[in-house]
From TrEMBL:
<protein>
    <submittedName>
        <fullName>NAD(P)-dependent dehydrogenase (Short-subunit alcohol dehydrogenase family)</fullName>
    </submittedName>
</protein>
<comment type="similarity">
    <text>Belongs to the short-chain dehydrogenases/reductases (SDR) family.</text>
</comment>
<dbReference type="GO" id="GO:0016491">
    <property type="term" value="F:oxidoreductase activity"/>
</dbReference>
<dbReference type="InterPro" id="IPR036291">
    <property type="entry name" value="NAD(P)-bd_dom_sf"/>
</dbReference>
<dbReference type="InterPro" id="IPR020904">
    <property type="entry name" value="Sc_DH/Rdtase_CS"/>
</dbReference>
<keyword id="KW-0560">Oxidoreductase</keyword>
<dbReference type="Pfam" id="PF00106">
    <property type="entry name" value="adh_short"/>
</dbReference>
<dbReference type="InterPro" id="IPR002347">
    <property type="entry name" value="SDR_fam"/>
</dbReference>
Length: 260
């Protein structure tokens, strides 16, 4: 897909981190970008910076997602690109014993479901609604109508202690990539997923310098945290390369996560 001002894109989680970097990269190519996020102040700032549109969207809500797509399409036209970066996580053991008094607890199911609803169901909700819109578009070269990029995590393959919900949600994103690509192949819509490793995003902003240094040292090469711009470059590669379809690609400096 050739990126220029005839193309519209939606980036979920585009107010910060990987999503913001991708929104900037797309806008730099002339693409009209709509940012879906709950962080209104940050989202509006990024949108103003890139000449895009901010839509306050909760990916766990059909009504909110529908309203976001309606607003984005009214401003920019039907999107040909969807990049899913909205996500969250938590760290809770499946079952554990308190060191203080021996009390036994288990992972609260509402906390487990919260991560699944945002990371997995929210991603699918946006894919399904965006793809339905893409079906209305005239095909481009090779019959292409659109391109979708999802965000999983290396935790989908080597999750750490306490990451049962997070790993399950991201594993689900990986697991649905190929079947969705197959669902949409007859309509010219490609679907790929990136599995980022340890990236320097707002999620790590509060971490002490020694923690960041230890995380960077654990990466085989290069021994540093990933940069959001590197994610954005891979996302654009997936979008621009017409033969890129149905793939799940790790972007992690060669790391394989230890149990903790």
């Amino acid at each position: 897909m050739k990126l220029d001002d005839s193309i519209a894109a939606v980036v979920t989680g585009g107010a910060s981190g990987l999503g913001a970097a991708t929104a900037r990269a797309l806008a730099a190519r002339g693409v009209k970008v709509a940012i879906f996020d709950l962080q209104k102040e940050k989202g509006e700032a990024v949108a103003a910076e890139i000449g895009g549109l901010f839509c306050e969207v909760n990916v766990t809500s059909d009504e909110s997602v529908d309203a976001g797509f309606a607003r984005a399409r009214a401003a920019h036209g039907q999107e040909r690109i969807l990049v899913n970066c909205a996500g969250t996580g938590n760290a809770v053991k499946t079952a554990s014993r308190s060191k203080e008094d021996g009390t036994i607890r288990h992972f609260p199911l509402e906390a487990f479901n919260w991560v699944i609803q945002i990371n997995l169901v929210g991603t699918f909700r946006c894919i399904a609604k965006s793809a339905a819109g893409m079906l209305t578009l005239d095909p481009l070269e090779d019959g292409e109508r659109g391109a979708i990029v999802n965000t999983a995590s290396v935790a989908a393959e080597d999750g750490q202690i306490g990451q049962a919900a997070y790993s399950a949600s991201k594993g689900g994103v990986v697991g649905m990539t190929l079947p969705i690509a197959r669902d949409l192949m007859g309509e010219g819509i490609r679907v790929n997923t990136i599995l980022p490793g340890i990236f320097d995003t707002p999620l790590l902003a509060a971490a002490p310098p020694n923690v960041k240094e230890a995380l960077a040292a654990s990466v085989p090469f290069p021994k540093r945290l990933g940069r959001p711009e590197e994610y954005a470059r891979l996302a654009l590669c997936m979008i621009e390369t017409g033969y890129f379809n149905g793939e799940d690609v790790r972007l992690d400096g060669g790391i394989r996560m230890a149990p903790r």
